[in-house]
Amino acid sequence: MTAVLQAASVRGDRPLEDFLSEYRKVSRAFYDSSLTDAELARWRARQLTTVLHHVTDRSPFYRCHLAGVDIDRVTPEDLTALPFTTKEDLRREMYDVLSGPVGEASIYYETNGTTGTATPCPRGPKDIATSNAAVEESWRRLFRTHFGDRMPVVGLMGPSELYAFGDVFTAVTASLGACHVKIWPESPRVGFQKALRLIEELGVEVVVCAPALCLSLAKAALHHGYDLARLPVKLFLVLGEICTSQFAANVSTVWPQAVVRPALYGSQEALCIATGADTGRLHLSAPNYLPEVIDPDTGRVLGDTGEGELVLTMLVDGIKPLIRYRTGDLVRITPAPRDAPLPGPVVEVVGRVADRIALGHARLYPAQLESAVLEGVRGCLGYQVVVDHAPGGGDEITVRMDLLSRVADPDATAGAVAGRLRALTGARVRVAVDTDLDPVTHTGSFVSWKAARVRDLRSAPDRAVEAARQVAHRYAITT
């Protein structure tokens, strides 16, 4: 590997096939654990310099943004000479962030624009090949664990227009030799009834979707008369929002034959950041990124492990590499365990910085709140946390839960949930069992976890909440 890593220019002008040939060797060595720490460090150092030259040569925004920085002196160990790139930068600069005209890309995507201006996120051949490689390796191992030598039929339940979901997973399933079917229930051409019919008729064993859709699909199946134990789904691969271990365990009590595993963690802007293992952990695509963890309030760098806001520097000189990009995501990064089924540091996503919520005497991350609600819970088809001012001062929390009475003990569940939240927050808590939840709870990743799961009556709704409410009717499921 050392000879390979020393072979190329740092100017980013290698022919595409030369780059991809070299990248495949690095990727294969990374995933079969033959890439040494020193070789990975050399690859990252050279790619960092390559990308910095690439963006300052080709991106009008970065040419100005990095003006005055001696980019040849910047190292992966110390990126602090480089300024952060923020979402506000991307919205203000738009196409000027790109390292080349859109016509050089293979396909054009953009962010959904639910809480701000939609920003362009085109992808070129390098971006697609290097990002998809991590997903393909993750899925190959997951499928081997659950299905042995055969390939399952995969149901893709996500948007495709202007969004990478459909194209990424179409390419990955094709590369693995698996059949896929695009059956997003929220599409007007599909709907829940047709999606369920196709799952049954085609023997769909793997469903790729947002976590909230695992429960929405179950609720729709029960409404249309299906026996969840007889449907063929065995594996949910989830993405797009937080998915705690408590949420995953609850889904397995609703779908008796199925387990939940993370598909990937990523974004339109930053591509595939980490991929899922059968342990339920996400592992960083280390050849493609330099991660930093910072204090979300001060911007102080905490290192490349620990807990805080994730900052990424992308190491592939594609159409839109981002430098020290503040993702707005709160993460916990730890070294991979010795026996981990995937290499790369473990990335635990605990929520969005903007989704932290003050409840009683606590300030909770989304993952903390969801874990407290769902710890040990069985048969929950959905939940919503409603917060209001309590009479006499303080906060009053009402947790509304849709529970399958044949699986859950409603009284015992309500008592346990209320007790955990009282201990965590010091607030007044009550739990209401309700089969007719607010449809906004099913919007999930369309806007944000908080907009879907928390209704805060202590203040006026923000833009995210208003955006979720505007589309909530599309997610309603008849009880």
Automatic annotation (TrEMBL):
Signal sequence bounds: none
Domain of life according to the entry: Bacteria
Gene3D superfamilies membership: 3.30.300.30, N-terminal domain of ligase-like
SUPFAM superfamilies xref list: Acetyl-CoA synthetase-like
Alphabetized InterPro entries for the sequence: AMP-bd_C_sf, AMP-dep_synth/lig_dom, ANL_N_sf
Pfam families in alphabetical order: AMP-binding
Domain AMP-dependent synthetase/ligase: 111-312
Protein name, per record: Coenzyme F390 synthetase
